[in-house]
Amino acid sequence: MTPAGDPNVSLRSDVTVELVKSSASDSDILFAARVSTLGEQSLEELQKDPERSKGLINFLMRDRHGSPFEHNSMTFFISAPIFVFREFMRHRVGWSYNEESGRYRELQPVFYVPGESRKLVQEGRPGKYVFVEGTPSQHATVHSVLDESYQQAYAAYQKLLAEGVAREVARAVLPVGLFSSMYATCNARSLMHFLGLRTQHELAKVPSFPQREIEMVGEKMEAEWARLMPLTYAAFNANGRMAP
Question: Of these residues, 189, 198, 212, 227, which one is catalytic?
Answer without folding.
Answer: 198
